[in-house]
Amino acid sequence: MPLLVEGQRVRLPQSAGDLVRAHPLLEERARLLRGQSVQQVGPQGLLYVQQRELAVTFPKDGSISILGSDDATTCHIVVLRHTGNGATCLTHCDGTDTKAEVPLIMNSIKSFPSHAQGGRLEVHLVGGFSDDRQLSQKLTYQLLKLNDREENGNHFPIIYGIAVNIKTAEIYRASFQDRGPEEQLRAARALTGGPMISIYDAKTEQLRIGPYSWMQFPHVDFWLQQDDKQILENLSTSPLAEPPHFVEHIRSTLMFLKQYPSPTNVLFPGNKALLYKKNEDGLWEKISSRSYQ
Q1: Radius of gyration over every alpha carbon of the chain, rounded to an integer in angstroms
Q2: pLDDT tens-digit series, residues 238-253
Q3: Do the strands 200-201 and 284-286 form a parallel or antiparallel pair, or are they unpaired?
Q4: The pairing of beta strand 206-209 with beta strand 76-82
Q5: pLDDT tens digit string along 57-82?
Q6: b vs e for 36-55, b when ≥16 Cβ sit within 10 Å of the residue's Cβ?
Q7: 273, 209 in Cβ contact below 8 A?
Q8: Which H/E stretch holds residue 257?
């Protein structure tokens, strides 16, 4: 089955290495992306996508101009774009249920009508590296040259995050200070095993969060008592390669789960979703109420 990868029409490979060898232009484009400096992306017009989330929109969106995600080590960030109508999906995959996630990603793009003739799908994969447990390689193969650098015998990803400009289709290396709204709530859903979900309605230009439910996180007090080394070794798929804020992020999420062991009604009054929309300054503004502090 042919598809367009980084603008080049290819057939599905037997392995990621076969793909690169058959299409050297892909390796060159990957090299150019790796060589970019990292851009700090501000919150204006940004829709940040967390792990096990996807968001899709199109160039006529009046609220969102940038989709982005970061902190990908063994995870992969996938961008799927239709060249006809410009509909673009960005998702942060961790390999939990790739077989179910790929149709979800495809259908998110298909939900946008295409009036342009000859439109094709472009897919961009960013993330993964030569980790000790080979989780990255497995996920790369499931989804379709690894993003790897070596330092003192240890392997690290080169690119941790990307952004895509919905208007121009430009993809570039990026990092983000603002990962909201509701960063802890969304992170708690992922840490407790929530599946891949779509978080944005391009028709209403609203971000929809929940309602979610989760089981009480096991031994949360025990994990909160552990030192940084134990958290890295036990709650990360790549302890040596995590960004500096990883442990702080995990501790914050565990504290959130301790405070809210069951989210129904407490975090989602009336079991209704939390809705956000961009204001005139391009920042998220809540348009539905919540009761928790």
Answers
A1: 19
A2: 888 888 999 999 999 9
A3: unpaired
A4: unpaired
A5: 999 999 999 999 998 887 889 999 99
A6: eeeeebebebbbbbbbbbbb
A7: yes
A8: helix 246-259
